[in-house]
Amino acid sequence: MFEYAPAPESRSVVDLKPSYGLFIDGTFVDPTDGGSFKSINPASEEVLAEIAEAGAQDVERAVRAARKAYDKVWGPMPGRDRAKYLYRIARLIQERSRELAVLESLDNGKPIRESRDVDLPLVAAHFFYYAGWADKLPHAGFGPDPRPIGVAAQVIPWNFPLLMLAWKIAPALAAGNTVVLKPAETTPLTALLFAEICQQADLPAGVVNIVTGAGDTGRALVEHAGVDKVAFTGSTEVGRAIARSVAGTSKKLTLELGGKAANIVFDDAPIDQAVEGIVNGIFFNQGHVCCAGSRLLVQENVADRVLESLKRRMAQLRVGDPLDKNTDVGAINSAAQLERIRELSDAGSAEGAERWSPPCELPDRGFWFAPTIFTGVTQAHRIAREEIFGPVLSVLTFRTPAEAVEKANNTPYGLSAGIWTDKGSRILWMADRLRAGVVWANTFNKFDPTSPFGGYKESGYGREGGRHGLEGYLNV
Ligand code: NAD
Description:
Layout: E1 19-20, E2 22-24, E3 27-29, E4 36-40, E5 47-52, H1 56-74, H2 79-95, H3 97-108, H4 112-133, E6 147-148, E7 151-155, H5 161-174, E8 178-182, H6 189-200, E9 208-210, H7 215-223, E10 229-233, H8 236-246, E11 252-256, E12 262-265, H9 271-283, E13 295-299, H10 303-314, H11 335-350, E14 354-356, E15 372-375, H12 382-385, E16 392-398, H13 401-409, E17 416-420, H14 424-433, E18 438-441, E19 460-461, H15 468-471, E20 474-475
Parallel strand pairs: 1-5, 7-8, 7-10, 8-9, 10-11, 12-13, 12-17, 13-16, 15-16, 17-18
Antiparallel strand pairs: 2-3, 4-5, 6-20, 11-19, 14-15
Helix pairs in contact: 2-4, 3-4, 4-5, 9-10
């Protein structure tokens, strides 16, 4: 492999403050009964800022602000006027996208190439898309006069911090709801910059409120009696706890949870393209992707060829500084996540699967894990069953399409799947039988605001994106 000259993106475009308050009722405020915590750069372990932690009283303040804004301003506002605010926010995101992308890479550890070329364009596209719906709700197929639900409590994870915010906030506001959003504790910074963008857009106070903190803050928010809707993206375990706490109340609930997608390669697939798809499926965003193609199912007669090409391709991946524009694989988001990936990978070796990583030098500081594949994996292995949420691929083989379907569906999850084949008829046959919310054919990890996304079984319920994404925010 030839050497690249470093191509670092400048971090001077980001104006980091030493500390951040909570964003409630249009202004940044200090917590009343909470504390604070630090957000660090996972690529260097450098402290980026001190972040306010919202306590129960702060959550109460935020929900009250959202209620007032809903009753007095946002709920009664005509859709065409709400649309103007959403368009303004979308344009401001585009104008400030470099700043947002650098901040996202600093706080999350993802390569700047991805935050700049994937996350930020999709974030802006989501706001543009739902801005377009705000004045057309009677034509969305939910009756002649669909009404908003009220105050939405939204809790999001750390893997796509700003994109998950956009998936939550854009449809909620378009439909006429107000929101209190809690970002993940390891990645709060872009949500706080988004709060500044709401101020810049003159969004009425209280329409968007951001409360930072960890699980306790999230629990206080979703359990608050004053919220009408709970939208959660995160682990299946926490999703279950939230479903239990919401049961028996009148709150409406949508859950986007984990996944263990099969990426299925048939012997007639163009192998080089399939290998690109496998790499994109599991090493994009360090594998911190709920719909990651973490189980490769490859037809037995081409398995050796596919694995040889895959290993050659993996040896080209550049792991390192997220702000370097050459980087393909960045840092693992936190020490805790690194520990989970290590534990499950060690279990894979202990259970008898064969582990392989290309030679690669990892930085001394920060949280890193080399791209890894396991071969000789059986369906009983933990690495084939449990979500690893890291750059680790389990490889299994199959002989017939029916066997591929059976193995692909042999999981408690049902979020996504990929099919690689030359035959259109086989794509349709497989897609009909795969129990997954999203099925990609001859591509993987493609997202678009017009397309609904969501899971079956333990991957959750409800859909985000597209016209379907409005349903969770309307009384229909
Ligand atoms: P997590 O469930 O631990 O945390 C997610 C969020 O919930 C965080 O903001 C956290 O602070 C908060 N939280 C934790 N405990 C809570 C509680 N008891 N009540 C309310 N909120 C609480 O998940 P994670 O490790 O941060 O994220 C990874 C998981 O998210 C993976 O399982 C992944 O598959 C899933 N995910 C799913 C999707 C999807 O669209 N289906 C998208 C991204 C991530």
